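A favour, since you know our C-alpha cells better than I do. What I am after is a single protein written out in full by you. Could you add the entry underneath, on a fresh line?


***
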Amino acid sequence: MYGLAMHPYLLPLLAFAATAAIFTITPGLDTAMTLRTATTSGWKAGLGAVLGICLGLAVWGLGAAFGLTALLAASETAFTAVKWAGALYLGWMGLKLLLHPRTSLAHEQEEAAAEQPTNRPEIGVAFRRGLLSNLLNPKVGVFYMTFMPQFIPPHVNIQEFSLLLTAIQAVLSFAWLGLLVALTIPLGRFLSSPVVVRRMDRLTGGVFLMFSLKLALARRA
C-alpha cells in the first residue's frame, strides 16, 4: 500500500480540496443568494438555488477542462461581454430587492408563480437564479483556468483530472451551501416574519449591488 507521500495523485487532490474548501466557505455571492432564498422562500427553494449554483460551477469547470474558458482569458471582448451581462443581471436583482422589498412570503410565491407556473414554482425560479449568478460571472471561468492547473500533476490526462477537480469543487459547494440551508430550518418561523423578510431583501439587494459593481470593475487577471 502506498503512503500518502508516495502517491502521485492523492496529495494534489488533498491540496486542492483544502484550498477549494477555504474559497467555498468564504462569504460571497453564492452564500448571500443561498441564505436569502432559504430564509425567505423555504429550504426547498434554498436547495434549488444551491443546485443551480453547483450546476453553474460545473459548467465553468467543464469549459475549463476542455479549454473553452481560455477564450475569456485571451479575449478582452468576450470577457467584457460576459462581465457586463453578469453585472447588469446582479444590478437589476439588487435594485429590485432594495426598491421593492417584500413584506411577506406570499408575495414571493405569487412572483415565482408568475415567472414559472408549476406546482412548486419557487424552486425552479431559485434554481434559475442560482445558475445565472454563476454563468454570468466570467471571473469564475478565469478562476478555474488559473487556479486548477496548479494542482494538476504531470503525466496525467489533463481533461479527466480537471473534471475530477471540478467534481470536488461542486461537492464541497453543495455540502457547505446545503448546510447553510439546513441551518435556516430551525429558524423558519422567525425568518419568515414580515420585518425579517423586508430587511433580508434590502440586505441582499445591497450585497448584490456590491457584487455587481465589483464585477463591472473587474479586469482580466
User: Anything to note?
Assistant: Residues 158-184 form the longest helix (27 residues). The two ends are 42 Å apart (CA to CA). Confidence is low (pLDDT under 50) at residues 1-6, 107-119. The chain is about 75% helix and 0% strand.
